C-alpha cells in the first residue's frame, strides 16, 4: 500500500472553493482506498489531504484521469502553495478493509 499526507495552502478566502473542487475530482479513482480532504483548524487557508492507495502506481495513474485533470486545472488558480508532504506505508485501519 501507498499513502500520502499533504498540506495545500489556498489563496486567502478560497479554501472552501478549493476543497469543493478537490472533492468533485476524487470519485472513481481505481486503486484509491481512501481520499480525505480536511480543514486545518489552525490555518483558515489550509487543507490537509490524506490518501491511501493500493500502490504508488495507482496514485501516479490517477493523475492522468480526466476528472482529476479537470480538478487540477480548476483548482490551480486557487492554490497559493504547498506545505508539508509525507509518504507513508499504511498498515490498516477502520474503513480501509485491510489489517
Write structural notes for this entry.
With 99 residues, this protein is an alpha+beta fold. 27% of the residues lie in helices and 35% in strands. It contains three helices and four strands, in the order βαββααβ. The protein has helices at 15-24, 56-62, 66-75, and strands at residues 2-10, 32-39, 46-53, 79-88. Strands 2-3-1-4 form a four-stranded antiparallel beta sheet. Strand 2 and strand 3 (46-53) form a beta hairpin. Helix 1 runs antiparallel to helix 3. The longest helix has 10 residues, at 15-24. The radius of gyration is 13 Å and the shape is globular. 14% of the residues are buried. The model has no long low-confidence stretch (mean pLDDT 92).
Q: Order of strands side by side in the largest beta sheet?
A: 2-3-1-4
Mind summarizing the main beta sheet?
A: 4 strands, antiparallel
Low-pLDDT runs of 5+ residues are none
Strand content: 35-45%
How many beta strands in the DSSP annotation?
4
Q: Secondary-structure element order, as H and E?
A: EHEEHHE
Question: Quick check: average pLDDT?
Answer: 92
Radius of gyration (Å): 13 Å
What is the share of helical residues? Answer: 25-40%
The rounded distance between the terminal residues' Cα atoms is: 11 Å
The count of helical stretches stands at 3
Structural class: alpha+beta
Question: Which outline best applies?
Answer: globular
Amino acid at each position: 500500500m501507498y499513502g500520502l499526507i499533504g498540506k495545500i495552502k489556498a489563496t486567502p478566502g478560497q479554501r472552501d472553493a478549493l476543497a469543493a473542487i478537490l472533492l468533485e475530482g476524487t470519485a472513481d479513482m481505481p486503486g484509491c482506498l481512501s481520499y480525505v480532504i480536511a480543514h486545518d483548524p489552525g490555518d483558515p487557508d489550509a487543507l490537509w489531504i490524506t490518501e491511501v492507495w493500493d500502490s504508488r502506481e495507482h496514485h501516479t495513474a490517477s493523475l492522468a484521469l480526466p476528472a482529476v485533470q479537470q480538478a487540477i486545472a480548476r483548482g490551480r488558480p486557487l492554490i497559493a502553495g504547498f506545505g508539508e508532504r509525507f509518504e507513508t506505508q499504511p498498515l490498516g485501519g477502520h474503513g480501509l478493509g485491510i489489517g
